[in-house]
Amino acid sequence: MRTALLVDDEPDIIDLLKICFESATNWRLHAASTMAAAMKRLADTKVDVVLLDWNLPDSTGLSSIEQLRKTHPIILMTAASPRALASAWGHEAPGGWADHGVLGVVEKPFDPLTLIARIEQILVSSRHRSASP
Amino acid sequence: MTARSRAVDAPTTATSGVRPSAGDAEQAHQRAYLLIISDRTLAQEVAFIAHDRGVEVHVALTGEAGVDRTRERTFSAILLQGLLPDTDAIRWLNEASVRTRATPMVVMSSFRGILDTARTSFDVAGTVDEPTDAETLFTALVNAEQGRRPETEPSPRARLDEAARTYAATLPGKLRVIAEAWPTQPESAEKLAHRLRGTAGCYGFDEVGEVAGTLEEALSSRAQPAVQAALDAVEHAIERAVERARQS
Is the bond preceding residue A109 a cis peptide, omega within 30 degrees? Predict the structure, then answer.
């Protein structure tokens, strides 16, 4: 059983992901609506991946990532435009997020019925990337 | 001759469906056709078993070849490998679902995400965790063809549909909050429009999400005419979304 922590302040997204994860037999989902709540949860719960929203009430973008990247795999879930993200990463190259310790990006809106498969695909791809010389 | 070519090239007199032959005279004239989409040795073993039991087996080594086979004929059942050389089971199901909707399908994979999605989004008749063996796969195919499905929890699709109806009912209120916030708290209104843009599409209301994006940009520009036009567009899109949700 793997565990994901969703960090998102949008209750509708939390509700949606709960449905997605409850139908998955090998995943458990925790949710936090602020970075402070997320850090508290991470201190006492083993989490395999953090699903991180770009804009949070007490933290945004790279600041959130910096707090998490050394200890937890991160998948960014965001409605931010590719241009806004590229600007944040500091360059236009596709996959610029990888330089910041982010395994992948799930753009909102996403298809809830294929979300878990997408997350697993990102995790597998990142394992392959880290295994290759 | 390899197992694959033997299975593919040697159509046989078969029993109904993919059931093991029991010598039923009435069923003997009916042909059963099994499509295996896999490049694995294990699939060849399944082909051997099915062939020995009187089923005509077609094997496709890639997703593309599998799609071609489904264009050529209908099958009694399909066995689909989770990760194929050129695609994965979810993409394959997405592309082929129109032609294969009525065909009992079994998906095998070591990835729970693929199996869960195949079951919940595409309503496949069976899923098999890997590692597994040929007899287990063949039994799953027989069960799938006979319509025997494992006990399942309430469909996530049904739960999502219900969640979408609930969400749709909240949309007019969300727009009202944005419209009320914008004259005095434009940043707050912009943030709410941004949320709406990201979330509405996740619940299947793509049009609302798209016009909410336009609204977010208009709010960012602080241009009154553009904001008003965008608010109107969102209102109309929400009316359609609510109506659609009501009818579903």
Answer: yes
B59 in helix, strand or coil? Answer: strand
pLDDT digits (tens, 9 = 90+) for B110-144: 888 888 888 877 888 889 998 888 988 998 998 88
CB contact under 8 A, B113 and A24: yes
Cα–Cα distance for residue pair A30/A20, rounded to 1 Å:
12
Look at B156 and A120 and tell me if their CB atoms are within 8 Å.
Answer: no
CA A48, chain centre distance (Å)? 11
Residue B33: CB atoms within 10 A of its CB come to 21
What is the token pair recorded at B70? 């489904």
Nearest alpha carbon to residue B90 among B56, B63, B54: B63
Query: What is the spatial distance between Cα B115 and Cα B133, in angstroms, rounded to a whole number?
Result: 17
pLDDT tens, B37-50? 999 899 889 999 99
DSSP B147: T
Indicate the residue of B153, B157, B197 with minimum beta-carbon distance to A113: B157
Residues of A in Cβ contact (< 8 Å) with B156: 19-20, 22-23, 113
Choose among B112, B159, B202: nearest Cβ to A108: B202
Neighbours of B140 (CB within 10 A): 24
